[in-house]
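Sequence only, no structure available. Ideas?
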Amino acid sequence: MLRNARRAFLYSVVLACSAQAFAGPESFDSEQGRVTVATVAEGLEHPWALAFLPEPAGMLVTERPGRLRIVDSQGRLSKPLDGIPEVYARGQGGLLDVRLSPDFQQDRLVYLSYAEAGEGGKAGTAVGRGRLADDNSGIEDFRVIFRQQPKLSTGVHFGSRLAFDGEGHLFIALGENNQRPTAQDLGKLQGKVVRIYPDGRVPDDNPFAGTAEARPEIWSYGHRNQQGAAFNPWSGRLWTHEHGPRGGDEVNIPQPGRNYGWPLATHGIDYSGRPIPEAKGKSAEGTEPPHYVWERSPAISGMAFYNADRFPAWQHNLFIGALVDQSLIRLQLDGDRVAHEERLLKSLGERIRDVRQGPDGYLYLLTDSPSGKLLRVGLEAP
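Reply:
I predicted one. Tokens follow.
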């Protein structure tokens, strides 16, 4: 614990010393005081995810067209790293999530999720890992450890957030490729949360391991397009969120073997304005209700629990990015219950794609645009 505190302190010092290189900060009103926003880096093409490297190396940032870069402590962008797999960069597809191995200090492994092309112009989500070179110039020996099968996407609903638990498992939150019935089909990997070992092996205690005609990787099913996944640091349980159709974005706490409803149960309607053909209503027998739901979709992406000491007012809050609503959503938690919601930063006018808590206790956001930004968000001292 002392070592982690020292790391956070050193990271804070590095960033504080380079603060003059950041544009801003601007400040905005919130229920908990003035929120500050500084631009750390810009000129990123549709950035999708970020991961913090050990100090003082900076952060890895993915760009959807297929580039992985390092943003250093001064906000400078590296050239694209070598060794990145070829991606299916169409529609919502491309290079997506990035996570460091839990043992990165020893193995330097980086995990990437991305849209991978298949036959007939179709694509699916893939996950692979490789070693970050000692000079940080590229990813070495990249190897695919998971492929969504079959490949059904024509450019949408790849999902693909990654999260490690504390017991040696990797969870992958997947989309249903806009093929609604597949989310209920246990023989397909669309619309599922899957649980594997970091090398791609399937745990024997997965809920459908050994079940005929079911994929053993599956942890939960009945999901639509999941673009948020994080472990609650207080309960140790996985939380995910997913896009509804026209309405019905939702947060879930996926339990093994459970059905989360899509498309049998939804709070949304089709983009045409008609009901979802398969839907039986907002609930359906044998399915789990959402833990939290938005009747009107903010179009959520990225999520981070706040458990740092820097801003005590944010303790036990969950932060979620919103694309269409162009806001940072703050959910105040009472245990697992969402006690209050606040929308932050709407006046920025930015689509927020990813949210991460930094080792310095600030929040870091990525904005989704052809010239996207990396933002650092905090609270002014009272």
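Residues 1 and 254 are 29 Å apart (CA to CA).
Hope that gets you unstuck.
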